[in-house]
Amino acid sequence: MEDKKTLYSAIQPTNNLTIGNYVGAISNWLSLQNDYDCYYAIANMHAITVRQDPAELRRKTVALLALYLACGLDPQKCCFYVQSHVSAHAELCWVLNTFTYVGEMERMTQFKDKSARHAENVNMGLMDYPVLMAADILLYQAHYVPVGEDQRQHLEIARDIAQRFNNIYSPTFTVPEGLFLKVGAKIGDLQDPLKKMSKSAENANGSIFLTDDKDAIIRKFKRAVTDSGSEILFDPENKPGVSNLLTIYSVFTGKTVKEAEADFEGKGYGDFKLAVGEAVADKLAPIQLEQQRLLSDRGYLDNILKEGAEKAAYTAGKTLRKVYKKIGFYQI
Ligand code: TRP
Fold first, then answer.
1. CATH code reported for the domain at 6-180+297-327
2. What is the pLDDT of residues 194-204, one digit of tens each?
3. Ligand 1 and 137: CB distance under 6 A
């Protein structure tokens, strides 16, 4: 029991999650929860680096917890907590700031992208985002961090900061490894299948959100782009649209792509798109129902977050005390 390795990840409670996130992240976490000591944070401190509506931020924070649970993540196996409930994140972030160079942060790809997108609000928090993320990970002495490709550079900087600190003082932080999960299919945008389905795509018709109802799901699949010709074959190069839909169908029905092709032999694109939409809607319906049920039991959810914050604060506190001691903060 005790020798399980620690796994840490976090999601911002801002944008709606898509079926791409479900397949790429949450469904993988389901199998990881048995083998690792898992911490999953709801990263509301990262979220405010871009201006948020307070009521929405509050609502989305519990909604994300309810969603995790509805997908089958087990609070007995994973520690769920809200980042702002554990003050050690802000505290370690401050210390790590003094081990991070301004030039390094200015060069981060995501910082450059977000500065361009939010030119009216290029705040210090936006620039400090990777340092806060390093603090998140290092506080828990995480061995593994499952994240998407877009977080690779942030993970690299967390490793650099950990090594830098360890070299100046003595081994203090576990140097984390990224888990860039390749299991599970890549889901493309329904309107532009060569692009990854994204929670913040400009065209919402290209993304299926986990909160979409059956009508919306069917409507979006009906509008999905297909390819010239009429056969329903898996051929990502020549038929990216059809292949993406076949992938989605296979993931959501548990069938292989070959079996999926066989299901649609001799059928037209219209029937095909409808069937894919139904497969997705059928899979999401019970998750959405369970999420709603959980959201109506706020006491239960708050309790999970309370226990999560206690456990997280205990682990994080141990690391923070070590750091304070090493850097020469006077202890009483
Ligand atoms: N930046 C991550 C994202 O947007 C979220 C995040 C915050 C995170 N802290 C983390 C992920 C620590 C992994 C580990 O996806």
1. 3.40.50.620
2. 998 887 767 88
3. yes
From the CA of 143, how far away is ligand 1's center (Å)?
Answer: 15
Active site residue 311: no
Statement: the pTM of the whole predicted model exceeds 0.70: yes
Where do the CATH 3.40.50.620 domains begin and end in the chain? 6-180+297-327
Q: Where in the chain is the domain with CATH 1.10.240.10?
A: 204-292
Ligand 1 center to residue 18 CA distance, Å? 17
Based on the residue annotation, tell me whether 114 is a catalytic residue of this protein. yes
- For residues 9 and 146, the answer to whether their CB atoms sit within 8 Å is yes
CA 79, 77, 24, 225 torsion: positive or negative? negative
Provide the pLDDT confidence category of residue 68 given band limits of 50, 70 and 90.
very high
Q: Would the pLDDT of 186 be above 90?
A: no
* Cα 30 to Cα 9: distance, rounded to the nearest angstrom: 13
Helical spans, DSSP H, in the chain:
19-21, 27-32, 44-47, 54-70, 88-97, 102-106, 109-117, 124-139, 152-168, 214-222, 240-253, 257-263, 269-295, 298-327
Exposed/middle/buried for residue 272 (C-beta within 10 Å: 0-12, 13-18, 19+): buried
Q: Does ligand 1 have an atom closer than 6 angstroms to the CB of 145?
A: yes
- For ligand 1, whether the C-beta of 250 sits within 6 Å is no
Helix axis angle for 54-70 and 298-327, nearest 10°, is: 100
Q: How far apart, in whole angstroms, are the C-alpha atoms of residue 142 and residue 138?
A: 6
Q: How far is the CA of 42 from the centre of ligand 1 (A)?
A: 9
The catalytic residue among 60, 114, 220, 273 is 114
Assigned CATH topology for domain 204-292: Tyrosyl-Transfer RNA Synthetase (1.10.240)
Question: How far does residue 154's CA lie from ligand 1's centre (Å)?
Answer: 8
Cβ atoms of 93 and 128 within 8 Å: the answer is: yes
